[in-house]
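Thread: Newbie trying to understand structure tokens

Hi all, I'm a second-year student working on a class project, and my supervisor (Dr. K.) asked me to get a predicted structure for one chain before our next meeting. I've only ever worked with sequences, so writing a 3D structure as a token string is new to me. If someone could post the tokens and maybe explain what I'm looking at, I'd be very grateful. Here's the chain:
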Amino acid sequence: MEVIDGQQRLMTILEFVDGDFKLNKGSKNYAGMAFSNLSEEQQEKFLMYRVPVDVILAAQRSELLEMFRRMNAYTAPLNTAEKRHSQFQGAFKWFAVELSSKISPMLEEWGILTTKQIVRMSDSELIAELSLVLEKGLINKSETEINKIYSKYDDAFPVAAIYESIISGFFESMATNFSELRGTNLSKPYAIHSLFAAYAHITHGIPNGEVDLGFPTRNKAIKVSNDVKMALLEISDAQELKEVTGKYGQYVAAALSTTTKVAQRRARTKVLAQILDPK
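---
Reply by user tm_fold:
Sure, no problem. This is what the structure looks like when written as tokens:
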């Protein structure tokens, strides 16, 4: 079973019973007392107190994450992604919401984003960034640019089906063909961005991709081989060891410095594209 809301309160009750702390002066009648200091009658009364709960049965992981998200909206100040989803109510906002509900379980399982980040709408922000790759190619990460794509497609999003197909196809390919990358350095958000850009250029083409990556789009599926998988794992290991002068030094250097600037994005994506499309 999993606690969706109220975990801190439940843990506090259990820790008090276990004697992990004493009550502070906020308790008028029992300040300074541990559970063991209470009388037998008081302990029994405490243990017999009923904590009301709602039990949710047979919920999908995406539904649980949405519950987390909705409850969190009333308990914490809005971050940039949440403010954006409050400001825009149009086509792109709902595209991001619907697509994130499909891929967020994988984002969580792979450690691409934490549960807390997903609850705070980092999954929708990631989808917006991947959409910007299809829209503008490799650019600096910018709240302004993310807001622009929400605004541009607020009334209508005519390329929604195309963008969804490419983004969904990428995550399906990752889950099917590259499960070895789960939990590695290549499952970090910035690495996923670079992997997606390489994938999108090879399979469909991205703006300025030929200039940034050094070859035209292939307009075909990526051929997955053991050599490709091994090379990607070698990149992850090289990053772990910070081998900036080794075989994959260009990628490692671009992963250890600022990760969201266009120069680093180009460097990482170029290395990954050469591996995914060996020529």
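A couple of things are worth pointing out once you decode it. DSSP finds 14 helices and no strands in the chain. The chain has a mean pLDDT of 90. Feel free to ask follow-ups in this thread.
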